Amino acid sequence: MLSGLYAKWMTEWETRLTTRDTNRIVRPLEWGFDWLDAVPAPALVQSSLSYASSGIFASSGTGLSTSQSSELDDMIALNRQIVAESHEFFDYRTPQDFRLEDRLPELFPTNVRPETLARDAEIKQRARTGQMEPATFLRFTSPVRTSYPENDVVNARWYPAPANKSRPTSSRQAIIVMPQWNADAFSHNALCTLFNRFGISALRLSKPYHDIRRPSELERSDYAVSANVGRTIASCRQAVVDIRSCMDWLETQGYDQFGVLGTSLGSCYGFIAAAHDPRLRICAFNHAATWFGDVVWTGQSTRHIRAAFEQAGLSRDQVREMFLAISPMSYMELFASNPRRVLVVHGTYDLTFLREFSLDVLDNFKRFGVDFVSKVLPCGHYTTGETPYKYMDGWYIGSFIYQAFKKIARQNAS
User: Fold this and answer.
1) What own/partner pairs with CB < 8 Å and gap ≥ 24 does 188-196 have?
2) Quick check: is 136 in a domain?
């Protein structure tokens, strides 16, 4: 009985947190093929003909118009092609304009709740009155370009670990931190400070269309995940390439042991980056799922995107198919092909990344022989950021990262 009451209370709390923002916008379906011009058109046509002749498309018998059905077929074909040629799709050239920039931190809020606006005003007031110290940020031009110049300048707050003679290997260890979708610019900064105490340097990476990279017409980071299918896929590609580029810069600074921490959408980006880059030997996934489209369809955080897809006549199975290129499940075998230590944290009452999706991740890790640790929080997705669960989550992540890097250091020293 008590467990049932707790589950009801947690579900109600989680629902309140996912419905308090009033600035989510239902935008109409756009296929966004122009965002995926990195994939050669002739190959797309060939794939479309091949899949069409095989009769395995999901578009038949739907509420889509004839033209929309054809575009859905092409999008599914394009996704399958990207998965088959993923190393080419996520390939890049190392940026040549790495630079460090000192500036006063800003919040860049993504909601208009009174408490958030008050916090933003307080931070700006502290900056104006000289009560805030400048922070250091790594900046460079993303190898993946978009039509938004502000988005194409990568931003990563730099937390170098202080020198420690008792841990001579620590200066070679660094982690890239990817917060959740719609995170403000202060999210996860405390974790970076914690990693510094372990002798691990950290780059807190702003995802595409987030904080300082967010186009001026947006209140939220909507362009990272939206009803524009091609742009959503391209955003993931840019995030993956930006992670790998950050490691290139870290290597120039003498680092050679790398990890990634991703939360929610950040975990998807971090997983795909690790699948395509064996340098990422430590991975912490704070909320994880196998299929991108299933999360969009079932998650409370993406109700407005599902609404757009439903209005266009799409089904859950079709949405899964048209996001294959950015689904962790598509790269599970590739991810498992390189040795690494992995943490997965999930919530029992998660209404954004449903529990069944996280269990599917764990089952596939077992099937493919991934070396992983599983931790379960008695809360949901948004409540992970609330007391006391945020401290439990921080303990799981911090202790795992500390032990995993310590193990790598011992292996390298032997």
Assistant:
1) 188/261, 188/263, 189/157, 190/394, 191/261, 191/394, 191/397, 191/398, 192/157, 192/159, 193/159, 194/394, 194/398, 195/159, 195/161, 195/398, 195/401, 196/159, 196/160, 196/161, 196/162
2) yes
